[in-house]
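A further point concerns the way the authors explain their paired sequence and structure data. Since the whole study asks how a given chain folds, the encoding of that fold should be made plain. A single example would do more here than another paragraph of explanation. An entry of this sort, consisting of the sequence and the corresponding backbone structure tokens, reads as follows:

_____
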Amino acid sequence: MTRVLVVDDSPRLRSVIGNALATGDYDVVTTRLDDDPHTHLESTGPDVVTIAVTDQLADGLEIAQRLLATSPTPTLVVGPDETADRARTVDVATHDAVDVLATPSDDETEAFGTELVETVDELAAMDVATLAVAHTAATARSLGTSRAAPQRALADDARGCVTRSSANTTPDRADRSPVEPTPTHATAPEQRSSPVSAPSTTREHSPVDSPTIVVGASTGGPSLIERLFATLPAALEATVLVAQHMPEAFTPRFAARLDAVSEYDVIEPTDGDRLRPETAFVAPGNSHLGIEIDSDGHRRVALLEEDGRRPTPSIDVTMTQVAGAIDGPLCGVVLSGMGRDGVAGIQAIKAAGGYTIAQNEATSSVFGIPAKAIETGCVDDIVPPDALVETIIDAMAGEIDE
């Protein structure tokens, strides 16, 4: 059931909106505009917020923007039909996460109710990626500064990579030269550092027969990753790690969305979770997804703190950690996004003998991450999204059959 929080400064609007929502299957919670909407957001966890104002539409939009920056929820603003203010403010400030309806007159309530229900349903079905973009933009605006993701140039430390053009061409296991891990010191989760180097461990553990797949993406990535999970067969029995640049408020929803469309068990992990086949781990938005190996040789999630020097979660951190900890079939995938996060990761996976894939330019919303990875010469295959799952299956089947 869709839960709607109705925030208003008018008994009349409260009645009109409440009566309209009563026609649908909604759980409605109401509060006055002079109360703190944040408190009600935290206590009720609504799917959609409606804000009704009687004076200035811009005031309602300003409230919506503040809520979006701190408690990101799709929001409908109902207020006076001031066309100029509406067009200017909605276009600049809301990034599709906030819609606007004009306050109805007494003879317009029936038509308004129909439109209200349709709008609430559309907002409730909003894509996580769209809301994440709106949240990031609103947060940046509230701070009065641009918050472009920090980028850091990473040194090219893998040489002699060869690009292959066929999806059926897999690396020769005899040529593998696994990356030896760089020792680090395990600490409490909140104190963990987040180096690009591999985790602290020896490689004297049982081989992994099922494949490990690491997927990294930024802008344009969520929908591509959802398509991948919708078609990735459980029969492959892979362990999948996902590093998608996304604010922490959205990664739990993103994981839940992937879980709903996939044959895999998709989760946002906690520190120490054991890696296992037919399970996917989505990096939390406030930390990097690393790996450590316990005394029994089991690979476990190590959540590493954000260090301010690279996008969080970092593709490089996850890929390099996996390259140093996994000795079975391994595949690294980089998809659409801005920047060069993933360059060191793809190099590490290639150096460890893994198979590497990048999205092609024609289908990339932003051809930054894939392009930088391809420039290293360490990418085995360049494919469109429709060919991604087949390419992974072909590459990993060849590894497992060896």
